[in-house]
Amino acid sequence: MRLVFIGPPGAGKGTQAEFLIKKYHPAHLSTGDMLRAARDAGTEVGLKANEYMSTGQLVPDQVIVDIIKERLAQPDCSEGFLLDGFPRTIAQAEALDEMLKAAGTPLDVVLELRVPEEELFTRLAGRGRADDTPEAIKTRLVGYRNQTSPLLDYYGKKGLLKTIDGLGTVEEIFARIEKELDSLQ
Ligand code: AMP
Prior knowledge:
Layout: E1 2-6, H1 13-24, E2 27-30, H2 31-41, H3 44-53, H4 61-72, E3 81-84, H5 90-103, E4 109-114, H6 117-125, H7 134-148, H8 150-157, E5 161-165, H9 170-182
Parallel strand pairs: 1-3, 1-4, 2-3, 4-5
Helix pairs in contact: 1-9, 2-3, 4-5, 6-7
The site of adenosine monophosphate (AMP) has 16 residues, from helix 2 and helix 3.
């Protein structure tokens, strides 16, 4: 199964991605995790990316597209993958389409985890990650609204989008995801 998981920061995407991977076993491609690992390892890309991450801005498209291209070429992705945190802009989505088209491996589904914005700010403020300062949170939420939410229309028009209500318990939300994914198989 090849899927994209979209949701604003604080929607609970990370938790649901873990559940999903345990049950369906796609390769997990989280660009946030990859960038944090690169930053912690002190690589050139990681240190450059951190200048954006620490203020809540998006890392430039070309940087992230190159990372994903390399990752998708690895053998574990041939059995399916979950893209978590990518694409985040229309330019990234178009680059992904080209990559997958060239490989003959189109997406099966795009899951959107939907949570109202007021709820997100409260959740993020309580999380305590290094890039969860109030200013960075605001920047990330505005970034989601302006740069990432146009993807919903983009994938909606392709007939790939499934919207999941992101309010409720972790188990309730995962049950909604399972229902959508099981109906694809
Ligand atoms: P996340 O863990 O997905 O919230 O990502 C943390 C930070 O990494 C984001 O605030 C961005 O600065 C950067 N980042 C992660 N994925 C992307 C992406 N697809 N495009 C641009 N920047 C990204």
